[in-house]
Design goal:
The protein is an alpha+beta fold and about 110 residues long. Helix content is about 20%, strand content about 25%. The longest helix has 12 residues.
Length: about 110
């Protein structure tokens, strides 16, 4: 329904009371600009809630997801400010699975 060509995750927590304008301001602050057909993901401090801001080329969509148990696998705020995710990694993240093990992150190099 909405075309998404790139997915970016911010390690900096976002207040989940934030609306579209606040989330857009955070996208510009963290990523420099809001690009069309791109999804930007943010979590709260406890990483049990997530907001996704999608720029569809015309306007913005803001979606929220909450886990009733556990938390999303999220990088520490002191690590990279933002991480580029693949579509399979996004699918795993939304389910609460360890997305960093999918793709290149799952390659075993030392036995």
């Amino acid at each position: 329904m909405i075309r998404i060509d790139a997915v970016w995750l911010s390690s900096v927590p976002l207040d989940m009371r934030a609306g579209t304008d606040t989330a857009l301001a955070r996208v510009v602050a963290v990523f420099g600009a809001a690009h069309p057909h791109t999804a930007y993901l943010f979590a709260n401090q406890r990483a049990n809630r997530m907001k996704v801001l999608v720029h569809d080329g015309i306007g913005f969509w803001l979606a929220a997801r909450r886990l009733h148990q556990g938390h999303f696998v999220w990088p520490a705020p002191d690590s990279q400010a933002h991480v580029n995710l693949s579509r399979p990694q996004l699918d795993a993240l939304v389910l609460g699975l360890p997305w960093s093990r999918i793709g290149e992150g799952g390659i075993i190099t030392i036995v």
